Amino acid sequence: MKQEELMYAAVICKINESLNENQKPKPDQEQNKSKQYNKRSAQTKRL
Question: Is the entire prediction scored with pTM above 0.70?
Fold first, then answer.
């Protein structure tokens, strides 16, 4: 393979990796969602 082809292949690999990372739900985001839900349910219980 030529040097350019190797560079393109590396870039494509990186792009695919980052796309896969973006599709995975991040655990901290999931925790934040549940925290917000808990806050909401606590507020409705007070009412």
Answer: no
